[in-house]
Amino acid sequence: MLEAAATSFASILVLGAGFGIAAYVYHKSYKYMVLRKMAKAFEPGDPVLDLAAIGKDLPLSKTAAATHWVERPEQATVDAIVAGRSVGHYHLFIGEKGTGKSSMLLEAMRKIDGDGVAMFEAHADLEIFRIRLGKALDYEFHEDYIGSYFSERGPRDTTALLDIERALNKLEKVALRRRAKVGRPLVLIINQMHLIRDDEDGKDLIELLQQRAEQWAAANLVTMVFNSDDYWVYERLKQLATRMDVLTIMDLPKAQATAALRNYRQRYFGESPSPETLEQVYDRVGGRLSFLNRVAKSRDMLATCDAIKEAEKTWFLNQCWILGAEMDDDVMDQQKWATAAVVLATALVDKEAEMESTYDREVGHILPSFPLHEAQEIMTRADFVRALDRLNLFSITSDAQVRASSVPMHLAFREIVARPGFRAHLAATIDRIAAIESLGRTRELVAKDLVLGGRYQFRKVPGGTDVTLKEGENAGDAGDGDKGNSAKG
After folding, report:
1. What global pTM score does this model have?
2. Through-space distance between the first and last CA atoms of the chain, rounded to whole angstroms
3. Burial class, 255, CB count within 10 angstroms (exposed 0-12 / middle 13-18 / buried 19+)
4. Where do transmembrane segments lie in this chain (predicted)?
5. Does domain 20-248 have CATH number 2.40.50.100?
6. What is the greatest pairwise CA distance in the chain?
7. For residues 330 and 323, is the Cβ–Cβ distance under 8 A?
8. Where in the chain is the domain with CATH 3.40.50.300?
9. Which of 62, 100, 474, 475 could form a disulfide with 289 if both were Cys (CB 3.0 to 4.6 A apart)?
10. Which of 180-184, 264-268, 465-469, 483-487 shows the lowest per-residue confidence on average (mean pLDDT)?
11. Which of the residue ranges 113-117, 188-192, 325-329, 452-456 would you say has the lowest mean pLDDT?
12. What is the CATH number of domain 254-441?
């Protein structure tokens, strides 16, 4: 019995020790593989570059300017940031949609073949944001960890925000190892930050990302780059920013825009547009790269310019046209918003007459603008202008100037304001809104007893007012025949 017991005990001890050692080795090797996979995600080559090259039908070449046909003046600054030569700061790229922010980042990544860089797109849903972050970093959030089979609660029994924090913790370890080997920080690019919802969950996510960006910028571990079209992201980051560097991406100046358009037409169409044609194109669409790209690929450039302007005009009218004096009171809230937008557009058109110059032969268009606080005063509301910025009707620049979102949009404003009877229509809408608001604040008292010459008699009494109804044709004469109903209030 003793021998059998000793044998059983020894067997159990060996099996337990074997399982324990195997589990420990697996745990350590799993954590090592997690860091190794994440480190490989920052090695040369990136799926984002492959997708960009496929989308543009270009070879996967390392030559400069292979992914876009015009180089912006800010490209050198972006190259230094993405290559890891600019340290000590994290960066916010802000500018209107279509100015070339993402293209510059992709071009800078392609010049170094994505070495030390990871990029992904933001999303409003935190779970999708978590998945995209994990894909960019090649991190599984312990979802493939075999130890979850032996626990009641798995590693994913938590929130998306905690998973994002866990991924950033792993990234910090990878960055520490890489800095010891290479001597420069990793670069993490989050594109389309404006897609994050402006609510409590979005605020928590941006705060988490900014805290990491501040810490890593101070230690030169990771340079984070936030890319946004909307001003509210800048406002959110500004509250806690100490090491944030803001790079504003504007439309191309006239000389560079026309030169790029000429080179493109010569390269792909074999034609040399006249200076008059190039100037007409710039006058209609400005230096917005997305518009120039559409025009450059079109056979009839001027017709495409007109189509772009009409599309912007239609977008504005569909979103916030005013309904006039006959509007129903059920659309009151929407019409307040629409009227504020139309009033601001009218003010921008009227300001052109006060400006010394609205066009420069070298710079190009000088769009009228108002400081943000003045725009809010013109609209008589402080909560509408940011929503208009999100809809790309107006634009708020990084220095808090409010203007039309683009040159075609401002030209659309001119046409709308120049419509016959527009200002009378706007005034009628404003008056109708004021009348509905006044009706909502008014209380109506209906007196049904005043017949046959009856009247109310009011007199002050101790503790209130006495109201007496005098009836009859001669109710005004005092007499014994008068009838009265009285009430005290």
Report:
1. 0.81
2. 104
3. middle
4. 6-26
5. no
6. 129
7. no
8. 20-248
9. 100
10. 483-487
11. 452-456
12. 1.10.460
